């Protein structure tokens, strides 16, 4: 049997069986088949495979159609026009400028926040004695830092230490006092006191 | 446009799709009737043995649910084959997982219509089925789509998610194997 070298013809054989070739191509393939044993054999194999299709069950078309839900058009998400989006950004930017700028001006004023601003003052506790510290009952109740709030109208406590309020409210003397008191701190306290553990409580 | 048996020109798939979208349920019947047999045959040819009707049904349900995404770049049938193939792959993956956990019972080996098939199948059908069984899964898909469905390499490449060149190679290797198998029988 001769070996076919015309790959173009070989490619067209399935299309010949499905009647998909235009007239001129069909004539060319049929002329080739008259002289080519290999392609004739290929066509026979392809015809066998095509006609002897593997058994498939009959499909109940009505049953399939009944399962198909009715058409619901997909509504595209409407985007706002670019100009509207730009206006929104401009408004947001303007608001941010007003808030930041206004806040800065207020803070920079020399007497800003003078009225009614609360001052947190902390009374320094007396240092615990040796017996107190070993008893394990020191800390929040016994020797801890107690925080009081006061208004700016009563800042003249002799040994007061301002921690979180407006420093502008303090007089020069108070500020010196504050600096002196701060220098006596070994370390800043943690935001939450450590749990109290009774070391010698016998428990 | 090919003429219908009544002499009227047969509507294209796109025209039927438009009619279905406009609320004509008969258009869906026409579309399902036009393509269901090819889908069932393709499924059977690539080795599906059970639940082919459900598979075809699921293919149509999924296709009709996403018809808005079908732009007509390929033929509707090619698109349907693509959907069906994905469903088959999902199904096989699920079966593989269930086989790993659920013991297979003896009755599971008997296919839904295996007995009926063996009764009505002719010798040629059996030979073809055996020859197709000798192919790799991809060769089988490509060969079936090319020979039994008459799809072009470009369309087959779309269905199986490959290139035209690769599908051409698969086709020629498959033809060689099937030819040898049928010669030896």
Sum up the structure in keywords.
A: 203 residues; mainly alpha; 7 helices; 3 strands; B: Arc Repressor Mutant, subunit A; 2 domains; globular
Report the CATH superfamily of the largest domain in chain B. RNA polymerase sigma factor, region 2, helix turn helix motif
Report mean pLDDT of chain B, rounded to a whole number: 84
N→C terminal distance of chain A: 105 Å
Radius of gyration of CA atoms of chain A, rounded to a whole number: 47 Å
CATH class of the largest domain in chain B: Mainly Alpha
Structural class determined from secondary elements of chain A: mainly alpha
Look at the structure and give the mean pLDDT of chain A. Answer: 69
H-E order of chain B = HHHHHHHHH
CATH architecture term of the largest domain in chain B: Orthogonal Bundle
Low-confidence stretches of chain A: 115-125, 128-156
Low-confidence stretches of chain B: 102-112
Helix content of chain A: 40-55%
Kindly report how far apart the N and C termini of chain B lie.
Answer: 43 Å
Q: Please work out how many helical segments of chain B DSSP would assign.
A: 9
How many domain units of chain B? 2
Gross geometry of chain A: rod-shaped
Beta fraction of the residues of chain A?
5-15%
The total count of strands of chain A amounts to: 3
Hey, which two chains have the biggest interface? Answer: A-B, 36 and 50 residues
Alpha carbon gyration radius of chain B? 18 Å
Q: How many β-strand runs of chain B?
A: 0
